[in-house]
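The records we work with from here on pair a chain with its fold. These numbers are not coordinates but entries in a learned vocabulary of local backbone shapes. To see the layout at work, look at the sequence and tokens printed below.
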Amino acid sequence: MPEPANNGLLPLAEIDKLIHEPARLMILATLHVVKTADFLFVERQTGLTRGNLSSHMSKLEDAGYIEITKEFVDKIPRTLLQITDDGRAALLEYTNNMKQVLDGLD
């Protein structure tokens, strides 16, 4: 029986589909390089609409990849986002899997 044509694609089966969605990947990548970011900063960095960003934030929070904190500054609500240790680990695993796949294409 012949072997599969490209075993380098096997890491694709391990890709975290939650992170693989481009909007969520942009959110995690943004939060990876800053300690904490407010909603407006992430909105500007990603180019997502408020509703779209909010929806993706909820999914990442439900997975334990980000932490969302709401506070008031001079009676103005502010939403802060921070990547969790689990989120950092998941993003690292995702990037390692993608590197393996891409390196295998050479």
Notes: The first strand starts at residue 37 and ends at 38. The mean pLDDT is 90.
